[in-house]
Amino acid sequence: MYYDALKTFVTLVETKNFTRAAEFLHISQPSVSVHIKNLEAEFQTELLIRSPKVLKITPTGEILYERAKQILSMYEQTQKDILEHHHDIIGKLIIGASFTIGEYVLPPLLVELHAKYPNLEIEVFIGNTEEIVQSVRLLNVDIGLIEGQTNDRELLVEPFMEDELFIVGSIQHELVSKEAVNMADLQNQTWFMREEGSGTREYLKHMIRSNGLKVKSILTISSNQGIKEMIIHSGQGLSLLSIHTIKRDVQQHNLSILPLSHPAFKRLFSCVCSPVMENKRHVMAFKNILRQKTKL
Length: 296
What we know:
The protein has 10 helices and 11 strands. By secondary structure, it is of the alpha/beta class. The strands form 3 sheets. Strands 3, 4, 5, 6, 9, 10 and 11 form a 7-stranded mixed β-sheet that branches. A two-stranded antiparallel ribbon has the order 1-2. Strands 7-8 form a two-stranded parallel ribbon.
């Protein structure tokens, strides 16, 4: 079993120093060297380039580093699953969620989850859709909630909710007062967009392309709240945002939905997880609440 050697290798890559790695793992420096030599013999490749001043990882070392992190995570999770098999749902559940879901859809689900399983420690990581998919693939989170789909064939994808998006502007925007807005009215507008990797940005770009819209300018902001604040304070510019993101601001008359004479913009929210995480008891518990509390 190469668990100890893989753990030593990952620690050495991250600390970039044999002495620091030994101190972190509470083993001797010669033991660190032996672990690395054993791995290099096992895989018949040089994993690290050693010099007096710097420690560099080789291309094959990079491959092993990424796989080793996954192997260690799976091994440690298996230990936890076995220990918890006949007990209450305890331990830690790490949920990754895209910004729209994490900030507006997930909170009431977490309240329900905590009320039902008070001994379960819950941790939430919020990022854009691309970041969440990557975190799920690398097993940095147990389950991810994303906007739309993913083409990653290694992951299990299950839609859990339909979302509707609206084009919004400030209450002073010239198009807000029109009885009906058509696509031609959206030519040469300023658009506020989320950052690359965002599901909301991809949907907006698709809408612009598919309708042949010319864009006056684009401002990229990596936050739904930042986009809303820009629209409110500038009085200009438009964006396409989820109803969950804008509902409160529309009710408070801070933002206005354009009366667009166009079919509604709809997409799916999906949960994604690695096959090795699918049957974890706290992942299953969370997915059950997800199904009960959301409608597709």
